[in-house]
Amino acid sequence: MTRVIVVNGPNLGRLGVREPDVYGHQDLDTLRADCRAWGQELGLDVEVRQTDDEATMIGWMHQAADEGTPVVMNPAAFTHYSYGLADAAHMLGDAGLPLIEVHISNPAARESFRRHSVISPVATATITGMGFYGYKLALEAVAHCLAQ
Ligand code: DQA
Known about the structure:
- Helix content is 41%, strand content 18%.
- The protein has helices at 20-23, 28-42, 54-67, 83-94, 133-147; strands at residues 2-8, 44-50, 71-74, 99-103, 125-128.
- The model has no long low-confidence stretch (mean pLDDT 98).
């Protein structure tokens, strides 16, 4: 089974209690179980991670690039300003690995600072506004890329 990591940035450990009208009522453990189950259906061994720490997220990108691991990433607030994470994410493309950016909400329909992503230019694709289902679409996109 191909290993895929699903990495989540700051404040996504607060899913379920954080702005449920925007991010839904389900928590990170539910997302973890959903992603693992969706991965199984696609023949992917999925590991879901979350950190509030930029350096940790960057380190995960270095590791994924070195180990040849495809990535689904919800960069959360890092989306909008972390050039360090964008540079690290670039290394996945350099390694020929899919990187699917996903957002639970639709940032384009929210505050103006959310309308710009520094990650999208280095992502293979971006999925927004579909809730947790966006992660399923992202895993399907990974499977599609790997089948090419
Ligand atoms: C988010 C959107 C970001 O703007 C925000 O900072 C998040 C979550 C989303 O999943 O919709 O933390 O990435």
